[in-house]
TrEMBL record:
Keywords: FAD, Flavoprotein, Oxidoreductase. InterPro entries: FAD-dep_OxRdtase_2_FAD-bd, FAD-oxidoreductase_2, FAD/NAD-bd_sf, Succ_DH/fumarate_Rdtase_cat_sf. One of its GO terms (biological process) is steroid metabolic process. This is Fumarate reductase/succinate dehydrogenase flavoprotein, N-terminal:FAD dependent oxidoreductase. One of its GO terms (molecular function) is steroid dehydrogenase activity, acting on the CH-CH group of donors. The keyword Membrane does not apply. Residues 23-469 form the FAD-dependent oxidoreductase 2 FAD-binding domain. SUPFAM superfamilies: FAD/NAD(P)-binding domain (SSF51905), Succinate dehydrogenase/fumarate reductase flavoprotein, catalytic domain (SSF56425). It comes from Rhodococcus wratislaviensis (Tsukamurella wratislaviensis). Its cofactor is FAD.
Length: 490
């Protein structure tokens, strides 16, 4: 529920007293906010972070912890993988569109190795080991994994596959509760605190404050139910996350997510976007959404995914986020996994970070014809799909969707189907249009003076597609830029 407090900007002339003051004021203490705070402090600014909850972390601390980095990071090299900024850009432009921001992606790829080194210098630990199994994330403390379908069709023909999912090393991870994202946030917050960054908690930002020239000079927030005014002598950085939990904004901009659970935190209510919009800020890719597919990849890769017509529609060995998008956007959220008994048992016994996503078969039969009938599919629909798949699988190929040969195996008997209809949830990727220096742009195309933003409240490197790690990667990368830019203001 969005607060009913007026969102129109306040005039500084109406502020009788500033309750807090700093050179740079950062709204949000997640990955974008902490990165902005560190760089602003290193640039000599006095920094104050306003956090809505009672502690740092945001969605980042609950995330699996993937940071999308490449171009030849020390971790990639240590694990035996070659990559270059150009190769990374080729993949990202193909996978993150349509309409991907080429200037941002070029900038991000060229700065990726330096960004990895920055994280390491801030104390973020990475183990020099690669996890090569299908999965949402490494189940152990391995530091590198494929996280965007780079090694699956069609991307493995477009760019040379290289794993770019960098995960902070952490013991005792619990997916969705305390993931690798915690070990990303903890050292960064400690770095910020050593630099003298201050934080005020239970601060719900309400609106921006501008002077008579239109420059952003502060924020009005609610702290413990009381309005407080916070002055920013140099600049304000917005870093409060997406609008995944604002039903009104979802209905207006990303209606494909209506009724789908938000894969975010409830504090992601879009307030920063609305605050900046009230100043005339431009938006980009507000319809863009990531969609998670809720079935363990170790099972999915060993069967075939079919839609409500019994037809395959996606290579099963690709990134689960891509499967989710293809299912929700193009198959009316209808999906079934057809798999034989031997393959199901093999997948169920495989090591995974998400054993709780191992769905049980709903239907089982001795023949595909019986299974098809039990599922209520038109006679011959599933049979023809399996027949074509098995014909080529006998030779270890998949000319239809190009699943890699290592996962291509004829479907035998007995055979079962998992009912995965509606097994998707998502979060928003669109937001404020920003420059590579994290300046928030007015609809006129000019930067709004004194206002910067980063993270999921902005439109970053993802314009439609997604790869795990682009949120934490983009948020930290452009969070740093926001802090530097804000600190430079007079």
């Amino acid at each position: 529920m969005v607060d009913a407090t007026p969102i129109r900007p306040r005039s500084a002339a109406t502020v009788t007293k500033w309750d807090y003051e700093a050179d740079v004021v950062v709204a949000g203490y997640g990955i974008a906010g902490v990165s902005a705070a560190i760089e602003a402090a290193r640039a000599g600014a006095d920094v104050l972070v306003l956090e809505r909850t009672s502690g740092w972390g945001g969605a980042a601390a609950l995330a699996g912890g993937f940071i999308y980095l490449g171009g030849g990071t020390p971790l990639q090299k240590a694990c035996g993988f070659d990559d270059s900024p150009e190769n990374m850009k080729t993949f990202m432009m193909a996978a993150l569109g349509p309409g991907a921001d080429e200037e941002k992606i070029t900038d991000y790829c060229e700065g990726s190795v330096a960004h990895y080194n920055w994280l390491v210098d801030c104390g973020v630990p990475f183990k020099e080991s690669f996890w090569g199994e299908p999965g949402w994330e490494p189940p152990f403390d391995d530091g590198l994994m494929y996280s965007g379908g780079e090694n699956a069709a069609p991307f493995n023909e477009i760019a040379t596959p290289a794993p770019r999912g960098h995960v902070p090393q952490m013991d005792g991870k619990r997916t969705g509760e305390k993931g690798g994202g915690y070990m990303l946030m903890k050292p960064l917050v400690e770095t910020a605190e050593k630099l003298g960054v201050r934080a005020e908690y239970d601060m719900r930002v309400q609106t921006l404050v501008t002077d008579d020239t239109g420059r952003v000079v502060g924020i009005v927030a609610k702290q413990y139910g009381k309005d407080v005014a916070v002055r920013a002598r140099r600049g304000v950085v917005l870093a409060t996350g997406s609008f995944a939990y604002n039903d009104k904004m979802i209905e207006a901009h990303a209606p494909r997510l209506i009724g789908r659970p938000g894969a975010a935190i409830e504090e992601h209510d879009g307030r920063s976007i609305l605050m900046a919009q009230a100043l005339g800020a431009d938006l980009a890719h507000m319809d863009a959404t990531e969609v998670a597919f809720l079935c363990d990849p170790q099972l999915v890769v060993r069967g075939i995914l079919v839609n409500g017509r019994g037809q395959r529609y996606v290579p099963e060995d690709t990134y689960s986020g891509r499967i989710g998008q293809m299912t929700l956007f193009h198959q009316d959220n209808q999906a079934f996994l057809v798999i034989d008994e031997a393959s199901y048992e093999e997948g169920a016994a495989a090591t995974t970070a998400t054993p709780f996503l191992r769905a049980q078969p709903k239907w089982a039969a001795e023949t595909v014809e019986e299974l098809e009938s039990d599922m209520g599919l038109p006679a011959g629909a599933l049979q023809s799909t399996v027949e074509v798949y098995n014909k080529h699988a006998a030779e270890g190929s998949d000319p239809l969707l190009h699943k890699k040969s290592e996962w291509v195996k004829p479907i035998g008997s007995p055979v079962a189907a998992l009912d995965l209809r509606g097994f998707t949830l998502g979060f928003t990727l669109g937001g404020l249009r920003t420059t590579v220096n994290s300046e928030v742009l007015h609809v006129s195309g000019e930067p709004i003076p004194g206002l910067f933003a980063a993270g999921r409240c902005t439109s970053g490197v993802c314009a439609g597609g997604y790869a795990s790690g682009t949120s934490l990667g983009d948020g930290s990368f452009y969070g740093r830029r926001a802090g530097i830019s804000a600190a430079k203001q007079n």
